[in-house]
């Protein structure tokens, strides 16, 4: 059974509410009627109500770049899942490499967030990926296995259906360097094999694994054309409606 691709925009810490609304207003007509793939936007929390209102009733989902694992509490600066859901969010990124790198997110925290997201019915997009030194040292496979195993601790086959994984080699993020389609597909096979070992071949065969790292209109076809690549998580090239729409329609 083919996996339906998810093409997602991670806007990171960009855009004002007015810019976000202008994006959605321009983007929706470009992808109206596009049903081949799922689409999602991941704006900053302060933009969520604006983006949600502009995208309501469309074929584009909206989610958070990060959530906290606690229900609520004294966690200054954080966003709860209940808050996200109250404004209509359905998806969340978890463990993006920038969260791991700059905000000390560990596999253990990623695991807690994954459990919380599943408990509350969000679609979690769990990000994994090696840094350049790890790739150069031949450690990519081991790093990916460790991250997947850590993220999936306590996750059962019955719980796993909503989970999406994003493979984002850190050396390809925002650098203009892209993994070749073959490199990405190899990494995806390693990740899928690890999921199969943990949760069974049936679950692994259905799990979507996205690629992220300098995806652009120019390389989208080569990457997304790989059988192993079930969509994209796009940073820089998702900030402009026409560029992101071209990727969606690769
Ligand atoms: P770029 O597409 O800007 O390389 O960012 C990738 C990314 O981090 C998406 O989450």
Task: Walk me through what this model shows.
By secondary structure, the chain is an alpha/beta fold. It has one domain (6-248): Aldolase class I (TIM Barrel). The chain is built from 11 helices and 8 strands. The protein has an 8-stranded parallel beta barrel, surrounded by 6 helices. β7, α10 and β8 form a beta-alpha-beta unit. α5 (107-119) packs across α7 (140-151), α7 (140-151) packs across α8 and α10 (217-224) runs parallel beside α11. The longest helix has 19 residues, at 181-199. Residues 10, 96, 168, 173-174, 212-215, 233-237 line the site of 1,3-dihydroxyacetonephosphate (13P).
Radius of gyration from CA coordinates = 17 Å
Give the low-pLDDT segments.
none
Number of strands: 8
> What would you call the structural class?
alpha/beta
Mean pLDDT: 97
- How far apart are the first and last residues' alpha carbons, in Å? 21 Å
Helix-strand string? EHEHEHEHHEHHEHHEHEH
The share of residues in helices is 40-55%
Task: Produce a short descriptive summary.
This protein has 250 residues and is of the alpha/beta class. The chain has 11 helices and 8 strands.
